[in-house]
């Protein structure tokens, strides 16, 4: 098994919240190809998520960032090898972080690229909210308009109740269900399901809680002067209110706020969309030729 150099990641108060590691440089197999271009109707923000197997999803972001349009791609999903029953029974659900990351690093369809990454269970995810609403994701049509999209799941294949779902339902009941693996896409505010579509659906059907593993690339973000000032003022007010009972972690946060205005934040890295807007429009027209175009808002742009 590949031994990733995981180190504890600490939040602004100094508490350990997940892990981070620096991944070596390299072009990822699964990557975002993004396009920002002027168009007759205004600014176009769109792209796709693709791997060596093909396109898994196309998207358009409203220029006010209040909704997204999604179109499921035709590519088969095979980012990680299937987990066997013996492997599932050999590990507790909370012992899958390193095995999943090692399998991802060895996959030709991995989204891992050079830079700093965060990884950990969703229960420790310290950034934008995550809504594991499996029922909504399963009922979503191939071409969907999401007005309340922040934090939702992005399936890379249909969530359907098949033979593998029945297999995983038994593990959900037995408490041996491996966690799904999600990739945070900061530009969409969505979480792509890299592995575990059937496991998510099995947990949902059984009413069993699941704690997915989340990964995300991080960048060191420098606070704007006003935001940095507000952060320092809020921390100082908290210290004044607590008086002599200030926790050590809060003391460290105050020191850090005055000393270093940088903070790690999730930020999706994207590559240019080959061919520009004309290519995107042609790709979407081909992908939707078998669908009822009268019900598709995304293809109005194509």
Percent range for helical residues? 25-40%
Number of strands: 14
What structural category characterises the helix and strand content? alpha+beta
Shape: globular
Instruction: Give the SSE string.
Output: EEEEEEHHEHEEHEEHEHHEEH
Q: What is the residue-mean pLDDT, rounded to a whole number?
A: 84
* Total count of helical runs of at least 4 residues: 8
**Stretches where pLDDT falls below 50 for ≥5 residues?**
none
Kindly estimate the percentage of residues that lie in beta strands according to DSSP. 25-35%
Distance between the termini: 45 Å
In short:
Helices cover 28% and strands 29% of the residues. It is an alpha+beta fold and 302 residues long. It folds into two domains: 7-219 and 268-301, no CATH class; 224-260.
Structure commentary:
- The protein is an alpha+beta fold and 302 residues long.
- It folds into two domains: 7-219 and 268-301, no CATH class; 224-260.
- The chain has helices spanning 85-90, 97-105, 134-139, 163-174, 197-206, 225-242, 248-259, 276-287, and strands at 7-10, 16-23, 31-39, 42-51, 54-61, 68-72, 115-121, 143-146, 152-154, 181-185, 190-195, 213-222, 262-266, 270-272.
- The strands form two sheets. Strands 1, 2, 7, 9, 10, 11, 12 and 13 form an eight-stranded mixed sheet that branches. A six-stranded mixed sheet has the order 8-6-5-4-3-14, with helices on one face.
- A hairpin with a 2-residue loop joins strand 4 (42-51) and strand 5.
- The model has no long low-confidence stretch (mean pLDDT 84).
């Amino acid at each position: 098994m590949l031994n990733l150099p995981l180190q504890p990641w600490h939040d602004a108060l100094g508490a350990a919240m997940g892990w981070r590691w620096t991944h070596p440089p390299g072009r990822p197999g699964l990557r975002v190809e993004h396009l920002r271009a002027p168009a007759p109707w205004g600014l176009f923000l769109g792209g796709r998520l693709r791997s060596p197997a093909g396109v898994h999803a196309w998207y358009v972001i409203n220029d006010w960032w209040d909704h997204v349009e999604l179109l499921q791609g035709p590519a088969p999903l095979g980012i990680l090898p299937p987990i066997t029953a013996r492997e599932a029974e050999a590990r507790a659900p909370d012992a899958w972080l390193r095995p999943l990351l090692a399998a991802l690093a060895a996959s030709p369809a991995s989204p891992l690229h050079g830079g700093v990454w965060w990884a950990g269970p969703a229960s420790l995810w310290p950034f934008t909210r995550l809504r594991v609403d499996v029922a909504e994701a399963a009922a979503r049509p191939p071409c969907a308009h999401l007005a309340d999209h922040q934090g939702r799941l992005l399936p890379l294949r249909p969530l359907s109740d098949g033979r593998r779902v029945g297999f995983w339902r038994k593990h959900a009941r037995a408490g041996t269900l491996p966690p799904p693996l999600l990739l945070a896409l900061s530009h969409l505010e969505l979480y792509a399901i890299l592995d575990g579509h059937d496991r998510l659906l099995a947990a949902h059907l059984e009413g069993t809680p699941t704690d997915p593993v989340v990964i995300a690339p991080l960048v060191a973000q420098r606070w704007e002067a006003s935001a940095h000032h507000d952060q320092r003022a809020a921390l100082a007010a908290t210290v004044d209110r607590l008086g002599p009972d200030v926790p050590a972690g809060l003391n460290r946060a105050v020191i850090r706020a005055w000393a270093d205005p940088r903070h790690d934040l999730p930020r999706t890295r994207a590559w240019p969309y080959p061919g520009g807007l004309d290519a995107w429009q042609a790709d979407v027209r081909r992908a939707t030729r078998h669908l009822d175009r009268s019900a598709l808002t995304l293809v109005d742009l194509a």
